[in-house]
Specification:
Chains A, B: This is Acetamidase. Chains A, B: GO terms for molecular function: hydrolase activity, acting on carbon-nitrogen (but not peptide) bonds, in linear amides. Chains A, B: InterPro entries: FmdA_AmdA. Chains A, B: Pfam families: FmdA_AmdA. 2 copies of one chain form a homodimer. Chain A is of the alpha+beta class and 476 residues long. Chain A has 3 domains: 253 residues, Jelly Rolls, CATH 2.60.120.580; 93 residues, no CATH class; 85 residues, Endonuclease I-creI (Roll), CATH 3.10.28. The first copy, chain A, has an 11-stranded mixed sheet. In chain A, strands 4, 6, 10, 18, 20, 22 and 23 form a 7-stranded mixed sheet that branches. In chain A, α7 crosses α8. At the A-B interface, β13, β14, β17, α7 and α8 of A face β13, β14, β17, α7 and α8 of B.
Chain lengths: 476, 476
């Protein structure tokens, strides 16, 4: 591995035409986890099935690797970010990783989304004797709902330590490709499924107009597993009924992640959205780095380090930039989605396991002035044609409510699109003033006539408004 | 003229390939107001320069007309909707009209945007002896700021009476084409200009970070006058200074529309947004029909009958649908924009006079069940690929605050994206349930996984959130 650290202007050699890299990702596309020719990494991570393969050097001083990170009970943590988790692997700036992610809603349909998939089976294993992954969320281990209390729900793959990353740096993460995870059950060979749950944390929950006025509804979608921009169709739906977990705890609502749904207790309705086709735009709802402020942060509210910001634009071809908050950055990804509308209204997208191919580029603090990454204290996305600034009701709730006994409850109680809009405006103005040297008057006029503000999500506690800056406006 | 009234399924003959229709619009493109071969309509409207020309009949029973409606002091009303204004002309369902609209910000740069343009000159004429258009806004005629009090600011062309339209019907307005209005001043031959004002009603006004903390800024843009999808560039900007109008009233802020700005009192800064190019997306910020609830409604807050809803998608190729509230619908259009971002953050777009070619189609109430127009009580937009539902902080503030002394102050005091989001959700759910026969569970899942919610505007008193439904989701 190299000790090369990118400067902000660095364009790494691209390995995208590397036949082996393509081949390895294609292998991931064909099977859940076949050997891809890499050798196990050393230490604990190696035991979890993480492999490494050197990539052919294209440029003097560059010796990059491609890692493969399967999702299993040893490579994921559930419901939280933490700077203190032992990293799965350590990578250099410029390295690639193919990373499997698994949706926390898989147990809403065990047969379609877990059965026959060894990785998913190991993650969700739970019987009267125990769970493979006990902690789910940042809550206490003796929480009455279950260990961790479901205070944070997402199955997160990682963390990945980026060598050389220090607080104040910026981590660039390029999403080179995505693939849906096929069902491991021979009965559903070649198919992929996803879950949409209209849940108690959804925007609609206290505003239903048909009876029963209090209900949660799970809709199972079939997603085309072969392409990336095809469609998803509803298969059936059911209303959540009280579920008793293997430890005997009853869950009258969806209040703890990964509870196996006993399909003998539900009524399946196959007459659902007949003929409707949802355009698929695969993306990662949760992606980011660990915050310095706390030992353990719920995975639910997004924050300045990214996390669960739920922007559907975070898919193939998109690049995310995160302010590094702790040594090594501690990159984590999860909450895979096949599709989501801006707002993610009912609380979830089509929650669908995905594998992503990523490249990591580290930008050192000293190299940031004069670049678009200067003064970055929020997750910034870049697509081929756009830069996307993310505003939140509370820009950094962990700092703002550091003295509170329950920062998550504090941020949830303040959820508002009005404050998220103000934050998105403040950040966008700062972006133009600090990285483009515009006056405030110039920035404000430019924003009003050319920047589109959209509603990222209204369901993650810390609500989001994003600002879309078209790159075509910039001087050529 | 025909007595043909469209049913909801009716597709009128298109005259878009009619050489004369194209020729007349092209004529409008070349000059401000040349004779286009039509004959003056009779009555008062005829005197205002409105002309009519029969279109060749393509189908038995159809005899449509193309009207040309210039903008001048006789064809516009300023700052309000009213069911009681004498209509400019009466059209049949199926008729076309080329309609000139003039921005109310023209006097921010008289030389570029009024001088040499007889229509604009007649609208803005104001000297110590009087104004051609005295009332500007729905306020009292003896308001200290000026007649009408500037309670409503937009120069509105219309109203147009649609024969046969009754409350409960839906008026479809197809925007077939748009053109920018060229400067009438020989010094700026072939050029078009627009104004962006970062004004006191903007989202930024109480949140400025550089000195002086209280200021309004006018930025003058040059807009390519030839094409529709080209770019705009800033020419110069200036900070608003107290302006004394011809009646001697001092305007320390932008508090009354059409006040001539004395350029000897301002400091022009030409070092503004050098090299930045704003994509032009010409559209009408204000378009709609008259509400039944009041004699006179401010043109500022949008409502269920449309009006100033400020969606940049309302341009060429878009179709708007409005619930008819009064006999004849009383269609009005204005507030032309060269470009705007979703949010219209600083209070204005690039305010730029435009001419539009429209076709009117009337859908009778009895024909609405089973169509997308059933139960419509808000402005619905349709583009080639999308249907766009408009939510507001207050869906119908004129009804909601009917007993208030000042309904506009009431709605402004309640401006919130949170309530606008709820309204957009409620309407979108109703749309799917009532026009597509989906269950509430189906509607909510579909919305969450496929509908994008955006921020239309945060500056018009009644804030807007729109929901974008992709037409590709519907069963084929």
């Amino acid at each position: 591995m190299s000790d090369h650290i990118c400067s902000a202007g660095c364009t790494h050699s691209s390995h995208l035409n590397d036949a082996d890299l393509q081949g390895e990702f294609a292998e991931a596309r064909r099977s859940l986890r076949a050997s891809i020719g890499g050798k196990p990494t050393t230490g604990a991570a190696g035991k979890a099935g993480v492999t490494q393969r050197p990539l052919p050097s294209k440029k003097a001083g560059e010796n990059f690797s491609h890692y493969y990170v399967p999702a299993n009970d040893k490579t994921v943590h559930w419901g939280y970010f933490s700077k203190s988790i032992e990293p799965l692997l350590k990578v250099e700036s410029g390295d690639y990783a193919t990373i499997e992610t698994v949706t926390h809603h898989s147990n809403d349909d065990f047969d379609r989304m877990i059965k026959g998939d060894p990785g998913a089976e190991s993650i969700f294993h739970w019987d009267a004797k125990g769970k493979n992954i006990d902690r789910r969320g940042m809550g206490p281990m003796d929480h009455p709902l279950g260990a961790g209390g479901g205070m944070g729900v997402h199955v997160c793959t990682g963390p990945i330590f980026i060598n050389g990353a220090e607080p104040g740096d910026v981590l660039e993460v390029r999403c080179i490709d995505t693939m849906q995870r096929p069902s491991g059950n021979p009965e559903f060979h070649g198919k992929t499924f996803g879950i949409n749950a209209a849940a108690n944390w959804g925007f609609q929950y206290n505003n239903l107009i048909t009876e029963p006025k209090t209900r949660e509804v799970v809709t199972v979608y079939e997603v085309d597993a072969k392409g990336d921009h095809t469609s998803a169709k509803a298969v059936y739906n059911y209303r959540w009924t009280p579920q008793t977990d293997p430890f005997g705890v009853v869950h009258p609502i969806i209040d703890y992640p990964g509870v196996p749904v006993d399909h003998s207790t539900i009524q399946k309705n196959y007459d659902v959205l007949k003929g409707y086709e949802i355009p698929v735009r695969p993306h990662f709802g949760l992606i980011g780095v660990a915050p310095a402020e706390v030992e353990m942060a719920s995975s639910n509210p997004p924050s300045y380090t990214g996390g669960n910001f739920d922007n559907w634009r975070m898919g193939r071809g998109a690049t995310a930039f995160f302010p590094v908050s702790v040594k090594g950055a501690m990159f984590t990804v999860g909450d895979p989605h096949a599709s989501q509308g801006d707002a993610e209204l009912c609380g979830t997208a089509i929650e669908c396991s995905l594998t992503g191919l990523f490249q990591f580029i580290l930008h050192k603090k000293a190299d940031l002035p004069g670049t678009k990454l200067y003064d970055l204290d929020y997750p910034l996305l870049e697509t081929e044609s756009e830069l996307i600034v993310h505003g939140f009701s509370c820009p950094n709730y962990l700092k703002e409510f550091a003295n509170s006994a329950d920062p998550v409850a504090e941020v949830c109680s303040r959820a508002s699109l009005n404050t998220a809009m103000t934050d998105a405006f403040n950040k966008t103005r700062r972006f133009f003033m600090n990285t483009r040297n515009l006056s405030e008057d110039e920035a404000i006029s430019l924003i009003s006539v050319s920047v589109d503000f959209g509603i990222t999500q209204v369901v993650d506690g810390n609500w989001g408004v994003h600002a879309i800056i078209k790159k075509s406006i910039f001087p050529k």
